């Protein structure tokens, strides 16, 4: 037991002595460390001067799904009796929870937004062209990949492999560094969309267009089934109404054909009576279809989500840049730290090789 305690005490002493020796050795190399700190501070200063500032565009909006179950409970039973499902029981939606946040980051939404045309400085321009121009990507493509001219003004389904590859790279970069979508408070339905870019106008217009594109897609998808139901019922109502109008015209024509018919000749009344039966049947069918159509329209209005923009980006946007003092301190600290690590590693390596 005594030898173990003694060996452990020796090892602790050795560690302390080695640390002291390392600190003393670093002090002897203070001139080299100072030189590195000065070089790092100068590099940080140059970085803060030549680094372009970035602009942050933020848009927040509130999203509330339509509550289908609250207003249609009394109509669901009636509609089910005629074989119509108006969605009165609710159910899980495809964009519940945080799914809409992932929708913002999807390639489909980002591609649609990038390929949208907006007015910047009085000129119509596609957002992807604006992004390519201020990042000088065409120059890089020409030097590295020998791509001279490339445009994105046609249908995305007809893009070439090169065009798809460029869009994919931009979308990936956006998800990593440019775009940030979050819910500041998990208990609330407020969503925050943030774009960081070196182009102030691009940051603002892209943020607004992205929110518009995603929210429109969200609304259309949420109400797609109900819209289809309303359209089908509307076509049926129009068709039955045409038949009803034709039957009413037929009754009048039959009566006009025998204006002074002999009351004793009952066969003369048969054509008009047949048309009247058609009118009564068409009237009953038309009334039922119109009732179902109105119920479906109520269901559609209930399903439309409430999307209200709270704050949207306005010029001038928040400007972020590395300050000169911050650049000097950060550059000097990083250079000094790396220099000390290098000095210690070199001393350890020499002691091992001796």
From TrEMBL:
Q: Which InterPro entries match?
A: Bact_polysacc_biosynth/exp
The question of whether Transmembrane is a record keyword is answered with yes
**Is Membrane given among the entry's keywords?**
yes
Can you tell me where the transmembrane regions are? 30-50, 327-345
Q: Which UniProt keywords apply?
A: Membrane, Transmembrane, Transmembrane helix
Q: What is this protein called?
A: Chain length determinant protein
Q: Please name the source species.
A: Mucilaginibacter pocheonensis
């Amino acid at each position: 037991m005594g030898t173990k305690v003694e060996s452990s005490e020796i090892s602790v002493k050795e560690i302390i002595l080695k640390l002291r020796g390392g600190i003393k050795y670093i002090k002897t190399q203070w001139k080299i460390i100072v030189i590195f700190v000065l070089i790092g501070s100068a590099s940080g200063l140059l970085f803060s001067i030549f680094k372009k500032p970035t602009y942050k565009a933020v848009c927040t909006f509130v999203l509330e799904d339509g509550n289908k179950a609250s207003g249609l409970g009394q109509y669901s039973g009636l509609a089910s009796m005629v074989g119509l499902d108006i969605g009165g029981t609710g159910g899980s939606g495809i964009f519940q929870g945080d799914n809409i946040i992932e929708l913002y980051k999807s390639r489909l939404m980002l591609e649609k937004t990038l390929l949208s045309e907006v007015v910047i400085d009085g000129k119509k321009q596609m957002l992807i062209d604006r992004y390519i121009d201020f990042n000088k990507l065409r120059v890089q493509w020409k030097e590295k990949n020998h791509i001279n001219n490339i445009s994105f003004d046609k249908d995305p389904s007809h893009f070439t492999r090169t065009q798809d590859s460029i869009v994919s790279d931009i979308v990936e970069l956006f998800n990593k560094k440019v775009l940030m979508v979050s819910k500041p408070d998990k208990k609330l339905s407020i969503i925050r969309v943030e774009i960081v870019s070196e182009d102030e106008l691009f940051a603002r217009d892209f943020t607004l267009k992205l929110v518009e594109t995603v929210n429109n897609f969200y609304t259309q998808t949420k109400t797609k089934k109900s819209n289809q139901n309303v359209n089908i019922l509307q076509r049926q109502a129009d068709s039955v109404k045409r038949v009803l109008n034709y039957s009413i015209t037929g009754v009048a024509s039959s009566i006009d054909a025998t204006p002074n018919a002999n009351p004793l000749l009952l066969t003369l009344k048969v054509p008009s009576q047949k048309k009247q039966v058609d009118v009564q049947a068409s009237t009953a069918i038309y009334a039922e279809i119109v009732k179902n159509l109105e119920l479906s329209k109520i269901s559609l209005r209930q399903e439309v989500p409430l999307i209200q923009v709270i704050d949207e980006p306005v010029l001038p946007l928040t400007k972020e840049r590395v300050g000169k003092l911050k650049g000097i301190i950060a550059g000097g600290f990083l250079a000094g730290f790396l220099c000390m690590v290098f000095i210690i590693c070199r001393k350890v390596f020499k002691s091992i090789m001796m």
